[in-house]
């Protein structure tokens, strides 16, 4: 098979750099690669796979001859550049929220709903980070016992809000330690020694946009019926890297904690990390920089008749963004969809 020409859009950003390192790590084969940014970083040099590249400005014409674009440059940039890339014959894999809920754009987690990739019309969307890790956990459970109701609480790291937010956690913590007042910039409230029960803006129903992304994207990816109730509360916590989620899943069919553990032990992209006698359960510090979604605290829920409670943690910059983008590019190549 012909090796593809790749482009990494947003190559100078937090997610873009992670995409480059995973492309190298996974030894993805390509013919040519372009590293793209805005005018700001265009002309700067970056090293990738031992070779120096000049970063190019992402203009529409730069996509001529490109087969696959791995994009993480924000929704407004994707809205302009994705149709331009698709028009030129490229497959645009987008990390932003620009196209996720468009009917003719597949929203895919590699290993969960790969077949949906076949319906792409030039644009493929990567889900929101909190949704991404959850999908790998829910897929085998939904296949076995069918989800009836889902309740999720997230504890999200500051890296999900970019570099400025990471710096704010450091500065805010330092200032708090010397007892001085801190003036917030990236967040609406202090994040040092605190947590903030708001991520993104509020919508009409009182949920935030981030919370509604989990609801709507989960339905689309798992092909769940609109009647399945899904509720999410998303909270920003003073952690640099690694999103955690407390999840309660009510099922239509009988399922035990033991069966849940067994299904997850055999699931793609998931690692069961659950031994309460020895204080074994996932924490963000342990999971940062790693690929699997770690699951622990698996137990029969006492809140509903046929439900499971569990706690899952994953690196938001990897499975929540860059890793799935690279995995999708690899699927597109493997399935000959470019
Ligand atoms: N951080 C996460 O956990 C996470 C997870 C999932 C999805 N995402 C999504 O991924 C995207 C990037 O996030 P990030 O954290 O990597 O942001 P970031 O660190 O701010 O990087 C943004 C990147 O986009 C480029 N860019 C900005 N405007 C552009 C334009 N008009 N044309 C071309 N390139 C442009 C920037 O280039 P310059 O260097 O020239 O500014 C930079 O390379 C966002 O859509 C975000 O929602 C992030």
Q: What would you report as the Rg, rounded to the nearest angstrom?
A: 20 Å
Shape: globular
> What is the CATH first-level class name of the largest domain?
Alpha Beta
End-to-end Cα distance, whole Å, is: 11 Å
The stretches of 5 or more residues where confidence is low (pLDDT under 50) are none
Give a count of the beta strands, DSSP E runs of length 2 or more.
14
CATH superfamily of the largest domain: Dihydrodipicolinate Reductase, domain 2
Oligomer: single chain
Could you give a short account of the major beta sheet?
A: 6 strands, parallel
The proportion of strand residues reads 15-25%
Architecture per CATH nomenclature, i.e. the level-2 architecture of the largest domain: 2-Layer Sandwich
**Number of helical segments with 4 or more residues:** 8
Number of domains: 2
- Percent helix among the residues? 25-40%
Q: What ligand molecules are bound, each kind once? A: NADP nicotinamide-adenine-dinucleotide phosphate
Query: Overall pLDDT, averaged?
Result: 97
Q: Which structural class fits the helix and strand makeup?
A: alpha/beta
Strand and helix map with partners:
Layout (H helix, E strand, L loop, with lengths): L4 E5 L4 H12 L6 E6 L7 E4 L2 E4 L1 E2 L10 E4 L3 H13 L3 E4 L28 E3 L3 H17 L1 E10 L6 H15 L31 H14 L7 E7 L6 E9 L5 H9 L4 E3 L11 H4 L5 E8 L6 E8 L3 H17 L4
Parallel strand pairs: 1-2, 1-6, 2-5, 6-7, 7-8, 9-10, 12-13
Antiparallel strand pairs: 3-4, 9-11, 11-14, 13-14
Helix pairs in contact: 1-8, 3-5, 3-8
The chain binds NADP nicotinamide-adenine-dinucleotide phosphate.
NADP nicotinamide-adenine-dinucleotide phosphate binds next to helix 1, helix 2 and helix 8.
